[in-house]
Amino acid sequence: MAITSVSFLLALSLISLCIQALLHFFKVVLSQSRPVKKFSTHKPPSYPIIGCLISFYKNRGRLLDWYTELLAESATNTIVVQRLGARRTIVTANPRNVEYILKTNFNNFPKGKPFTEILGDFLGYGIFNVDGELWRTQRRLAGHEFTGKYLREFFMVTLEEEVKKSLLPVLERLAASSSGEVVDLQELLRRFAFNMVLKVSLGIDQCSLDPSLPVSPLARAFDLASAISARRGAAPLFIVWKIKRWLGIGSERMLRDAVEEIHRHVTEMIIKKRKIIEEDKSSEDLLSRLILAGHEEKVIRDMVISFIMAGRDTTSAAMTWLFWLLSRHPDVEQEVVKESKSVLENTIDYESLKDLKWLKACLNESMRLYPPIVWDSKHATADDLLPDNTLVRAGDRVTYFQYGMGRMEALWGKDCLQFKPERWFLEPVKKEALKKVCPYEFPVFQAGPRVCLGQEMACIQMNYVISSILGQFQIRPVSLETPVFVPLLTAHMAGGLKVFVRKRTSN
Questions:
Q1: How many Å apart are CA 290 and CA 301, to the nearest integer?
Q2: What is the rounded CA–CA span in Å between residue 134 and residue 60?
Q3: For residue 137, how many other CB atoms are within 10 A of its CB?
Q4: Where are the extended beta strands (E) located within 132-268?
Q5: Which residues have CB under 8 Å from 288's CB, separation 6+?
Q6: Among the ranges 153-157, 339-343, 386-390, which has the highest mean pLDDT value?
Q7: Are 134 and 123 in contact (CB under 8 A)?
Q8: For residues 231 and 466, what is the distance between their CA atoms, to the nearest angstrom?
Q9: What is the distance between the alpha carbons of residues 499 and 441, in angstroms, rounded to a whole number?
Q10: What is the edge-to-edge ordering of all strands in the sheet holding 182-184?
Q11: Pair 123, 306: CB distance under 8 Å
């Protein structure tokens, strides 16, 4: 018997209404009774069977701040979350726990099937979504390529070309506009980062930086696939997205179409690249190296998708939040401009860009408050005990929470919510030597065996882009309101960052 999509949608809506009614029932009935245990610093208020589902549902629009508040009140900066429809979850902002998870007992905390299932349709068997020998093989291959001199040189040439020939001309035109044209800086930086990762990874140019032109179909498909995959992980009841995927309706139908679009584009790029290689034409991009290494097309495709996803959104998000913070702290911005000009006046190279200490401190401080990746989850293979004596059961989801860690008074002091780049220097007044911060206290690039391979290149890219822009232009947000931080697979600023661009006058 054929059942229409409309019937499916009605059925799903009915299920959703029933869930909401059930939640309301529990809220009304249980409001007259006391929780199983009074609020403690280790778990939110919980009830029999449903656990903390009511609290989770009430705070679903502010999960980051809710978790941060609970962690700050916990003596160990760790909480245990149990709710109907989800596995037992341990959330921690304790650096000792983070080191244990990411390094000391690494083998007991893989991504795990529950995680890889959520992102499997999008990332497939790419390096960010696999465990075991498949991960180790890809890691060795990617590590070899990222540390090679050829890729660093190719990256620097590409970066300088993209900034001077694409990004700065767009800003120059906006600054010269007599009508005071407004641009979404977040979108502009996303397009720039997308082009960079495509050129370095695939050797192609895909996306125009002209804000009057629409984004490319591939970029649009990445946006959609990323957003829907992230909502899978945050869904109060995981079964809902599985039902929708099985029925092929709603957001899951959109995800399927977006992934097909991504696969089609990337596969075409791989085929074209193979032909170029067969014609004995040299190519320095990462895709060429992967093909020459003899890997299967599906593995190459999934690795490329993972690299594009990571390289595109993380750097653009970090830069967007820093530009906003600098607009609120003009004295800090002037220090960045002064330092940047001293470097940009000379020959640009990898090492000189690494030496921008004040800018690095500003970026670190921005990513502490607004990390591109807000949390990362593993799944315990066997029973375990974290250093703070939190019991871990086999199958538990164990999450270290970068967003919350950046707001822990225990780690950063009473001024932890303030933007203070000087905190990253050994002597804040002199601002000469940067501190060596433990990566398990500041794991924005992960740490341990899974530490981000592209960390150094990402920082060099951000340093050059920010320096180049601020050396010539003033960036001023249209609105004085504080933007909303949205955590998807990578975090972004809700609604973008609308700004005016003005030519910087000489001091």
A1: 10
A2: 35
A3: 14
A4: 182-184
A5: 203, 273, 276, 277
A6: 386-390
A7: no
A8: 31
A9: 33
A10: 182-184, 498-503, 473-477
A11: yes
Give the three-class secondary structure for 498: strand
Task: Tell me what the mean pLDDT of segment 128-145 comes to.
Answer: 82
Q: How far apart are CA 45 and CA 72, in angstroms?
A: 16
Specify the fold of 85-503. Answer: Cytochrome p450 (1.10.630)
Query: 216-252 as b/e, with b when 16 or more CB fall inside 10 Å?
Result: bebbebbbbbbbbbbebbebebbebbebbbebebbbb
Alpha-carbon distance of 130 to 111, in angstroms, equals 7
Tokens at residue 425, please? Answer: 């220097």
pTM attached to this predicted model:
0.86
8 A C-beta contact, residue 462 and residue 318: yes
Higher pLDDT: 232 or 36? It is: 232
Identify which of 47-56, 62-71, 148-157, 317-326 has the greatest average pLDDT.
Answer: 317-326
For 176-227, the pLDDT digits (tens) are 887 778 999 999 999 999 989 888 877 776 677 888 888 888 889 998 998 8
Distances (CA, A) of 377 to 233, 237, 318, 396, 401: 10, 17, 21, 10, 9
Model confidence at 332, pLDDT cuts 50, 70, 90, reads very high
What are 127's two structure tokens? Answer: 């390096």
DSSP state letter for 415: T
Query: What average pLDDT does the chain have?
Result: 84
Six token digits for residue 43: 């778990």
**Choice between 58 and 328, residue whose per-residue pLDDT is larger:** 328
Whether residue 452 is annotated as binding a ligand: the answer is yes
> How far is 367 from 131, CA to CA, in rounded Å?
27
Chain position carrying tokens 């992967």: 290
Cα separation of 135 and 268, whole Å? 25
450 φ/ψ angles, rounded to the nearest 5 degrees: -100, 15
Rounded CA-CA distance 88/98 in Å is: 18
Question: Is residue 336 within 8 Å of residue 362, measured between CB atoms?
Answer: yes
Q: What is the torsion angle, in degrees rounded to the nearest 10, for the CA atoms of residue 248, residue 249, residue 253 and residue 255?
A: -110
CB contact at 8 A, 189 and 449:
no
Answer yes or no: are the C-beta atoms of 484 and 495 closer than 8 Å: yes
